[in-house]
Design goal:
about 90 residues; alpha+beta; 3 helices
């Protein structure tokens, strides 16, 4: 299981999204568990991003809800971690 790191921008976007759509909270938490277990699970439709978000990755929560993240290596433990950058609709995160 990969460790998930929540950036301040992700936390802010998550709170705003849950405020607008409270029923999304369980779906998002479920997808985050799945992401931690297997980032390349076909259910997540994980894909590499291009352009201004080059180097980042995204996965799908729902039809129009994405999680943007980066793979990073922890300097102390040398283990791979997932840094969660943003969450929101396609237009909000891209």
């Amino acid at each position: 299981m990969t460790n998930l790191i929540l950036s301040s921008s992700f936390k802010r976007s998550f709170k705003a999204l849950i405020k607008r759509k409270p029923d999304f909270k369980q779906k998002i938490e479920s997808k985050l568990r799945l992401l931690a277990d297997d980032p390349y699970n076909p259910i997540l439709r994980t894909h590499k991003l291009k352009g201004k978000l080059s180097g980042a990755w995204a996965c799908t929560v729902e039809y129009d809800c994405r999680i943007v993240f980066c793979f990073e290596q922890n300097q102390e433990t040398l283990e791979e971690e997932i840094n969660l950058i943003d969450i929101g609709t396609h237009d909000e995160v891209y």
